[in-house]
Write a structure and sequence with these properties.
Elements (H helix, E strand, L loop, with lengths): L6 E5 L4 H12 L3 E6 L12 H10 L3 E6 L5 H15 L4 E4 L14 H29 L2 E6 L18 H4 L3 H21 L4 E7 L7 H6 L12 H11 L10 E3 H8 L2
Parallel strand pairs: 1-2, 1-4, 2-3, 4-5, 5-6, 6-7
Helix pairs in contact: 1-2, 1-8, 3-4, 4-6, 8-9
Length: 262
């Protein structure tokens, strides 16, 4: 199985896990749409869509940078249309764009709740709706929704300080959004199976060391954090799946890689 000559959209691909997956897909021969809101460098966190594309092209890969605000429905549909206009098809969608929250319910505003829900749950729903018609037309496709430990746990694995429960407690908005994403994915897998479209959930077993996470959680204990390597290998495997081969699964990166010797 190979993703050679396939077309993949990766949201949130300006840095972190999304960037790593985009680079990994390109190395496997896929044409990659690098989609994110970061079109220019920010002082707080490095990386943007154009620098990701430049890295892919330096290695001989094919990529297209498209600025996309996943909170904006029109921006998502425009990104998908540009992909179809450029490459003629969409084989793979990775819903990776996300935002975290570790604030208590009393500290959280409704605005913050809406932001987390919009990016982590509403945006994947719209992205799926936007790509599904073309995948149905070709009767094939793979959708990978990036979830988190937070979907099924209330305490963060990014700190080992047992006496700091207020820091270790995961935000309600983030955990609820990721739990909702997993439920959405299971249902979508059932809906799309007869169209040969796979929908799977991928999440890291251990915290992944990324630029954004380090900026957001300077208090974290980084001793058990890992590189995105396992996430990339697992994403490549899932990108190769169909509605008949593997769909509706929730997998962690490291367990999948070790079990299948990827």
């Amino acid at each position: 199985m190979s993703i050679q000559s396939k077309v993949a959209i990766v949201t949130g691909a300006s840095r972190g896990i999304g960037k790593a997956i985009a680079l990994g897909f390109a190395k496997e021969g896929a044409s990659v749409v690098v989609a994110a809101r970061s079109e220019t460098e920010r002082d707080s966190v490095p990386g943007n869509i154009h620098s990701t594309v430049a890295e892919i092209q330096i290695d001989g890969g094919q990529a297209l940078a498209i600025g996309c605000n996943v909170r904006d429905e029109a921006s998502i549909y425009s990104m998908v249309q540009k992909t179809l206009d450029t490459f003629g098809k969409i084989d793979i969608l990775v819903n990776n764009a996300g935002v975290g929250s570790y604030r208590t319910i009393n500290e959280s505003s409704i605005k913050e709740w809406d932001l987390v829900m919009d990016i982590n749950l509403r945006a994947p729903f719209i992205c799926c709706k936007a790509v599904i018609p073309s995948m149905m037309d070709q009767q094939s496709g793979s959708i990978i929704n990036i979830s988190s430990h937070a979907a099924t746990h209330i305490f963060s694995s990014t700190t080992e300080s047992d006496d700091q429960a207020d820091i270790a407690l995961l935000g309600q908005a983030y955990g609820s959004a990721k739990a909702g994403l997993e439920r959405f994915s299971w249902g979508l897998a059932t809906e799309l199976g007869h169209h040969n479209i796979a929908v799977n959930i991928l999440k890291p077993l251990r915290p992944v060391l990324t630029e954004g996470f380090v900026t957001q959680r300077p208090d974290a204990d980084f001793s058990n954090w890992v590189s995105p390597e396992y996430m990339v290998k697992a994403a490549v495997f899932l990108a190769n799946q169909t509605g008949q081969s593997m769909s509706g699964a929730t997998v962690t990166d490291e367990e999948l890689v070790r079990r299948l010797h990827l």
